Amino acid sequence: MDLQVRPGPGVPRGLLVPAAELAESFSRASGPGGQGVNTTDSRVQLSLDLATSQAFDDKQRARLLTNLAGRLDGTVLSVDASEERHQRRNRVLARERMADLLREALAPPPPPRRATRPTRGSVRRRLEAKKQRSQTKALRGRPRD
Q1: CA distances (Å), 62 to each of 99, 117, 138, in order?
Q2: What is the pTM of this model?
Q3: Comparing 50 with 144, which gets the higher pLDDT?
Q4: Which residues contact 143 (CB under 8 A, 6 or more apart)?
Q5: Residue 97: exposed, middle, or buried by beta-carbon count in 10 A (0-12, 13-18, 19+)?
Q6: Cα separation of 10 and 108, whole Å?
Q7: Domain Prokaryotic-type class I peptide chain release factors: where (predicted)?
Q8: Can you list the positions of beta strands (E) in 30-139?
Q9: Rounded mean pLDDT, 92-120
Q10: Dihedral of CA 48/52/53/58: which sign?
Q11: Largest Cα–Cα distance in the chain?
């Protein structure tokens, strides 16, 4: 089953990663599940080698390798899913996580913030609030004769 990445910033038409480029491995999941937890391989690990994938162009590949550097093992991106008891549901979850990670990593950085000065009204309101707070605190003291 191919991996579908929805359209978004940096991926205007979306992406389709062929199933042949994805590596799935299964193992026993920890946690609840009764007797079945000892016999079924419900944990799913989905891996994709970003350096050799044909789904990305060079610009996208460079952006992925930079933005996902902390999550990569070499150039391989791996995602685990073991929340569900059924392997089929965990496979769907792993694919959704992989697609979300790729979509976020392909988004361009936000434009730099342009510094602006505070308006005259906001400065006045801030100073009035400080004055009022100061008066409130001054009234908390011991009464003077």
Answers
A1: 17, 37, 59
A2: 0.72
A3: 50
A4: none
A5: middle
A6: 6
A7: 17-140
A8: 43-49, 72-73, 76-81
A9: 94
A10: positive
A11: 87
